[in-house]
């Protein structure tokens, strides 16, 4: 990892520089490098020879009557083969410790939307599941009533004078509108003086990404503290921007993801710093706003500002679920979790040889590659 590419500070930044009994709390921002996953493949010593390929082909061709033939070993058994796990690595020295802001708000938001049940088909399904099997028969009758009323309408049958018949007709109009005749349902509703009950139910659709805002007011008492604030602002701006691919060219073809931040609110009451407030998962810095000397034109002797306002907005890199709440305050809160295979949800089941009743070619996913444990594991 090139230092000039991912780091900017050789030391930890802090404000105020000289801590006093009035600054026993702080918020820490540790820059993290997201190392993307990769594929670990190492062939056995000597590489893959022509004899290996010939033997593997012979195994496949002769699979119909080969029985449990041992596949050819291509990969090194002594090495972990498969996908390399995604990691978040701490960038040494890339950290800023700042006094706690005046307030810190946490909003947990969840996504819901209204689901409507209007036509007979959807009402039938919803009623059958919600009220039990007895509702299914009533829904069947409603469907039959809808189709019959629609036929009677075009026959000029006068039995449509009741509200029930008009509602049945309107349900049929909704079905017709769904296939392109959009004005039918509106016309039938106005003429029949009835409207369909929307039967709205709240439908859970997901969890929102959480955002966090920090507003700091720096009042540096010396040029040295003013320069420290300048370095803190540059630290955040450096890690908020991505690296261009390729670097130092007029036209780029892509971006590397920016750094993540591990944010912790700490209280030093009692002599030891402890995390307080709601924990935050690794987050991206979405916006930075800096205001120099917002209320005074006074400068230090070297021309550095005496007042700086810094506003930061972060967004967590992933949404939370119930287990994250249980793991708050522990190391498991920041961990990525186990693989599907370790959780018993392996989506690549192993097929046995000669599983085709007709004796066809084996569908073993590892055929010809050797039996390597956990090739698709984490």
Main features:
26% helix; 378 residues; 8 helices; extended; alpha+beta; five-stranded mixed β-sheet; three-stranded antiparallel β-sheet
Shape: extended
The whole-number mean of residue pLDDT values reads: 75
Strand order of the largest sheet: 1-5-2-11-12
The number of helical segments is 8
Query: Can you give the helix content as a percent range?
Result: 25-40%
- Tell me the series of helices and strands, N- to C-terminal: HEEEHEEEHHHHEEHEEEEEEH
Task: Set out the fold topology.
Blueprint: H1 3-6, E1 13-15, E2 25-35, E3 38-40, H2 50-61, E4 82-84, E5 87-99, E6 110-115, H3 120-131, H4 134-155, H5 163-177, H6 183-192, E7 201-207, E8 211-218, H7 223-240, E9 244-245, E10 254-255, E11 260-267, E12 274-275, E13 283-292, E14 308-316, H8 322-326
Parallel strand pairs: 1-5
Antiparallel strand pairs: 2-5, 2-11, 3-4, 6-7, 8-14, 9-10, 11-12, 13-14
Helix pairs in contact: 3-4, 4-5, 5-6
């Amino acid at each position: 990892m090139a230092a000039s590419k991912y780091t900017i500070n050789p030391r930890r930044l802090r404000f105020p520089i000289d801590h006093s009994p009035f600054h026993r709390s702080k918020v820490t921002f540790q820059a993290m490098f997201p190392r993307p996953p990769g594929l670990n493949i190492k062939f056995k010593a000597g590489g893959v020879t022509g004899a290996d390929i010939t033997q593997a082909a012979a195994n496949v061709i002769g699979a119909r009557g080969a029985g449990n033939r041992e596949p050819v070993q291509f990969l090194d058994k002594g090495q972990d083969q498969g996908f390399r796990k995604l990691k978040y690595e701490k960038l040494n020295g890339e950290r800023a410790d700042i006094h706690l802001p005046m307030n810190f708000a946490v909003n947990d938001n969840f996504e819901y939307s209204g689901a409507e049940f209007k036509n007979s088909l959807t009402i039938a399904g919803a009623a059958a599941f919600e009220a039990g099997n007895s509702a299914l028969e009533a829904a069947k009758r409603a469907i039959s009533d809808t189709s019959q009323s629609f036929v009677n309408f075009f026959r000029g049958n006068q039995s449509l004078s009741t509200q029930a018949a008009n509602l049945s007709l309107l349900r049929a109009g909704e079905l017709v509108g769904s296939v392109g005749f959009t004005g039918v349902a509106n016309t039938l509703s106005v003429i029949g003086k009835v409207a369909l009950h929307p039967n709205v139910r709240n439908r859970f659709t997901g969890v929102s990404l959480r955002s966090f805002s920090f507003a700091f007011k720096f009042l540096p008492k010396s040029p040295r503290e003013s320069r420290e604030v300048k370095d803190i602002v540059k630290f955040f701006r450096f890690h908020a921007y991505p690296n261009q691919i390729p670097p130092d060219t007029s036209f780029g073809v892509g971006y590397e993801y920016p750094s993540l931040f591990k944010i912790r609110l700490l209280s030093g009451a009692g002599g030891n710093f402890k995390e307080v407030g709601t924990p935050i998962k690794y987050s991206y810095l979405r916006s930075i706003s800096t205001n120099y000397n917002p209320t005074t034109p006074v400068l230090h002797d070297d021309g550095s500002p005496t007042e700086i306002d810094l506003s930061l907005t972060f967004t967590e890199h992933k949404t939370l679920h119930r287990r994250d709440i249980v793991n708050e305050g522990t190391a498991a809160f920041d961990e990525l979790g186990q693989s599907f295979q370790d959780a018993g949800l392996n989506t690549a089941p192993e097929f046995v040889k000669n599983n085709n009743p007709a004796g066809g070619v084996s569908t073993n996913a590892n055929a010809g590659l050797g039996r390597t444990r956990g090739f698709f594991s984490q």
